[in-house]
Amino acid sequence: RVRLLSHVYVLPYRHPLAAAKQWMTLDALSGGRAILGVGTGYLEAEFEALGVDYHRRGALLDESIDAVRAAFAGEFSSHEGRAWAYDEVGQLPRPVQPRVPIWVGGSSPAALRRAAERGDGWLPQGPPEGGMSAGIARLQEMRHRAGRAGEPFTVGALSCLQ
Question: Which residues face 36 on adjacent strands?
């Protein structure tokens, strides 16, 4: 029953089809235990080394989540966005889970919005403004406004055993 979670996979570094293929394969190999934890990244030097525009990382993550979600949903997917476009690309193996969960990391207002609108869970990176209770309340309100209040949603937490 142990799940496999990335905390966090910087999705803007990669083409969304490559990322989707990796996570579908992991989900298949693990018997449906993968959770894709994503974030924008924050190390400008890494973006520079990879030739990715650091200042567009939020928009790239939003677009990537949508494209990866489409690839997870069906064997053939299409995407038309500002950064990536492709039509009817097939990918195997298919994930075991009917919906591979995507959890969004970060505690900024943009990360909370992204988790509420696009995520199946939230991976806080420290408490958001006003503390965890206020952050969770904001998430619930944003999910309600996005028409997602009835969908399953998980709030993750880091713990360490010493």
Answer: 102
- Name the residue with tokens 């995507």: 102
Q: Phi and psi (nearest 5°) for 151?
A: -85, 150
User: What does the block give as tokens for 137?
Assistant: 């309340």
Determine contact, residues 53/82, Cβ cutoff 8 Å. no
Q: Is the Cβ–Cβ distance between 39 and 19 less than 8 Å?
A: no
Query: Would you state the pLDDT for residue 157?
Result: 85
Cα separations in angstroms, 85 against 78, 81, 88, 99, 155: 7, 6, 10, 22, 32
Q: Could you say which DSSP state residue 135 is in?
A: H
The pLDDT value given to residue 1: 84
User: Is the CB of residue 110 less than 8 Å from the CB of residue 39?
Assistant: no
Name every residue whose Cβ is closer than 8 Å to that of residue 17 and which is 6 or more positions away in sequence: 67, 71, 84, 86, 89, 91
Q: What's the average pLDDT block by block, 10 residues per block, for the chain (162 residues)? A: 93 97 97 98 97 98 98 96 96 96 97 98 93 96 97 87 70
- Assigned token pair, 33: 């235990």
